[in-house]
TrEMBL record:
Active-site residues, as the UniProt record annotates them: 109
InterPro entries, sorted: MnmA-like (IPR004506), MnmA-like_C (IPR046885), MnmA-like_central (IPR046884), MnmA-like_central_sf (IPR023382), Rossmann-like_a/b/a_fold (IPR014729)
SUPFAM superfamilies: Adenine nucleotide alpha hydrolases-like
Protein name per its UniProtKB record: tRNA-specific 2-thiouridylase MnmA
Annotated stretches, region: Interaction with tRNA: 159-161
EC number(s) recorded for this UniProt protein: 2.8.1.13
Organism: Candidatus Desulfovibrio kirbyi
Record-annotated tRNA-specific 2-thiouridylase MnmA-like central domain positions: 221-275
Primary site of residence: cytoplasm
GO function term, MF aspect, one: tRNA binding
Length: 362
RNA sequence: UGGGAUGUAGCCAAGGGGUAAGGCAACGGGUUUUGAUUCCGUCAUCCGAAGGUUCAAAUCCUUCCAUCCCAG
């Protein structure tokens, strides 16, 4: 491009964050086009919605996104992604739970649908753009010492969402733009209010699905036992796929101390529980890795997140066991609770996202 | 049937004359783009039942009921 005026495609969800992202890009002088994906293809249910990604009331959000685009004076396009979403996210969600593991649909969706299919469809539709922006609280910046564009934590690490983005490819990172990366949520709302955007006080959406997860797994309820490590039966449940390691609430089992899910045994439909101490683990195997920065280039202690929470644990990573570099063993400085197969472990060096992978079954 | 023991919320469990701890579960809420974690709040007008003693009892007495264990 000869023009210095960049053209940014912005994923508008209908919420405050993406609207403010678009607003900021306009203020920076970008050409901006809004795009929204439609992913729901389930029953046209009740219409009662609480704000999930896969939500039977998504038309409302799409309409909000369109309104927002109109208010900002930018073009807006809607792309149907339901079929792919079903194949890529929902099928994965169901399969993972049935394997006795815990899926993370947001990570999968970001890499394959939101940052994958959506811009691809936009390109197919003839839209030209240099950048793809979203309202995520994260940063994508060129870092000289690594010689490329990398993902970084948002300034406000409490709100940081880079965890959900670690599976992006280098090309996706190269054109990614996160206008909210240096802002706090309150500032974003203030900006929206100042610009008169009606979504300025819209509650955050924080669910992937507003209904009963078991509906998505779509498995027939099946009674099984809740057992201790030594096999003592403490109670029963209606399907192992309703549980995740580390879970405490919802077991329905009374004991001296709180009990946590230690592991799940799909073949016996058993949920193994134990005390907090029994749930601690010092290491785990990571598979299906995505590596953004070679570990040799990191000279500081690596920190890991085992969940999207702001909690970081110092770790050491051993890649020696696997030549392909897709697997490694991660050892924690302190024993960790809630290490759940299927969940992602994401590595950071300072604020830079180094890579990550999926926690294995053992 | 004889001997022993126990009966406090859904579960476990303190309190042994002065007006029902605590834990677990459950429920409600906060945090959270994963129903995890975490945090906050609520949860026995009543202590197996009926009488009695006392200013006052879940706590003492009596009887009854239930359950468990050991005998036979």
């Amino acid at each position: 491009m000869t023009s210095s005026r960049k053209h940014a495609l912005v994923g508008l969800s209908g919420g405050v964050d993406s609207a403010v992202a678009a607003l900021l890009l306009l203020e920076q002088g970008c050409r901006v086009t809004g795009v929204t994906m439609s992913v729901y293809d389930g029953p046209k249910a009740s219409g009662r919605r609480t704000g999930g990604c896969y939500d039977c009331g998504e038309e409302e959000d799409i309409a909000l996104a369109a309104d927002m685009a109109a208010q900002l004076g930018i073009a807006h396009h809607i792309f149907g992604c339901a079929e792919q979403y079903r194949n890529v996210v929902l099928a994965y969600f169901r399969k993972t739970y049935l394997e006795g593991k815990t899926p993370n649909p947001c990570i999968r969706c970001n890499a394959l649908v939101k940052f994958g299919l959506l811009p691809a469809l936009a390109k197919e539709a003839g839209l030209e753009f240099d950048l793809f922006a979203t309202g995520h609280y994260a940063r994508a910046e060129y870092v000289a010492r690594y010689g490329k564009q990398v993902l970084l934590c948002a300034r406000d690490t409490r709100k940081d969402q880079s965890y959900f983005l670690y599976r992006l490819t280098q090309e996706q990172i190269d054109r990614a733009l996160f206008p909210l990366g240096c802002l706090k949520k309150a500032e974003v709302r203030r900006l929206a209010a100042a610009r008169g955007l009606p979504v300025h006080d819209k509650p955050d959406s924080q669910n992937f699905y507003a209904g009963d997860y078991a509906e998505l797994v779509n498995a027939r309820p099946q009674q099984g036992n809740i057992v201790t490590v030594d096999g003592t039966v403490l109670g029963s449940h209606m399907g192992y796929w309703r549980f995740t390691p580390g879970q405490r609430k919802g077991l329905g089992v009374a004991a001296k101390t709180p009990l946590y899910v230690l592991r799940i045994d799909p073949s016996r439909n058993e949920v193994v529980v134990g005390e907090y101490g029994e749930s601690l683990r010092l290491s785990c195997i990571i598979g299906d890795m995505r590596r953004h920065i070679p570990l040799e280039q990191t000279d500081r202690v690596l920190m890991a997140r085992l969940r999207s929470t702001p909690h970081f644990v110092p770790v050491t990573v051993d890649l020696s066991g696997d030549a392909s570099g897709e697997r490694c063993v991660v050892t924690f400085a302190e024993p960790q609770a809630g290490v759940a197969p299927g969940q992602s472990l994401v590595l950071y060096c300072d604020n830079v996202l180094v890579g990550g992978g999926i926690i294995g079954a053992d």
